[in-house]
Specification:
This is precorrin-2 dehydrogenase. This protein has 187 residues and is of the alpha/beta class. It is built from 6 helices and 7 strands; from the N terminus they run βαβαββαβββααα. It folds into 3 domains: 99 residues, Rossmann fold, CATH 3.40.50.720; 30 residues, no CATH class; 38 residues. It has a 5-stranded parallel beta sheet with strand order 3-2-1-4-5, with helices on both faces. 14% of the residues are buried. The structure holds ligand PQ2 and nicotinamide-adenine-dinucleotide.
């Protein structure tokens, strides 16, 4: 079965990235759009990772991984270039309360990071369920060109108007019709 798309509130979640190479850096860049409460552990960091750590004042430990490093964290991104070590960590977290993503163990992943488009309050998340990452990269760029700025302005307008009208059947009908009209005219 496919993974369920959910929008996770990262407030108060403790995130640990294990690894300081290309993959760890790519995943860190995604997460930094949503939280700065991230810790990184690796025996080395790429130049780009070092800059991200400095710019965002991230907690970091340049060291060899030790088993108890994961204690106290909620979300783990495991991107060491050592598959045996990834398997060891997968065993260690079995049955425990962690949400994990492993760079080389898709069958052990509790989640994938999809590609996303973020234009103010509009977030479009896309996934190929792990099967074709190069497609989502290009599809994201294609969608970016297709969505006009008027949609972003329309979202702002609706958000503001929703606050000023009382909740209920009438309001629902009003917004459904108004939004349908807007999209009918967009085509
Ligand atoms: C969204 C994004 C976020 C991120 O950075 O993580 C992401 N991949 C991105 C780009 C990308 N990745 C790769 C290429 C080169 C082309 C190619 O190889 O196809 C390109 C495209 C490019 O560079 O153009 C290589 C690659 N990726 C994975 C494998 C392993 C495998 O397939 O087994 C290999 C081959 C490794 C090898 O052969 O060595 C696996 C995963 N990549 C995922 C996410 C997850 C599934 C998402 C889904 O499709 O639902 C998953 C499962 C990881 C996970 O989250 O667990 C980011 C988009 C950034 C953006 O534009 O926003
Ligand atoms: N899922 C994906 O999207 C995807 C794509 C390409 C590669 N990969 C896999 O992801 C893994 C990481 O790839 P990469 O390109 O980032 O590798 P990399 O060599 O650039 O980085 C690996 C990092 O792990 C650190 N490390 C390794 N063992 C450690 C230990 N015991 N203690 C502390 N630090 C340790 C290294 O110092 C380095 O910073 C590889 O196994 C690769 O096969 C996954």
């Amino acid at each position: 079965m496919a993974n369920c798309p959910m929008f996770l509130n990262l407030k108060g979640r403790k995130i640990l990235i294990l690894g300081g190479g290309e993959i760890a850096t790519r995943k860190l860049k995604v997460l930094l759009d949503f939280t700065k409460d991230i810790t990184v552990i690796s025996r080395s960091f790429s130049d780009e990772m070092q800059k991200l750590i400095k710019d965002n004042k991230l907690k970091n430990f340049k060291k060899e991984y030790k088993q108890n490093d994961i204690v106290g964290f909620n979300i783990l991104i495991v991107a060491f270039n050592d598959i045996e070590l990834q398997k060891q960590i997968a065993k260690q977290v079995e049955g425990k309360n962690y949400l994990c993503n492993f760079a080389d163990l898709p069958e052990n992943c509790d989640f994938n990071l999809g590609a996303y488009l973020k234009k103010e309050d509009l977030i479009i998340s896309i996934s190929t369920n792990g099967g074709a990452p190069s497609v989502i990269t290009q599809l994201k760029l294609w969608l970016d060109k297709k969505i006009p700025n008027s949609v972003i302005d329309f979202i702002k307008e609706i958000k503001k108007e929703r606050l000023s009208l009382p909740k209920g059947e009438e309001r629902m009908k009003y917004f459904r019709n108004k939004t349908k009209d807007f999209f009918d005219k967009l085509d």
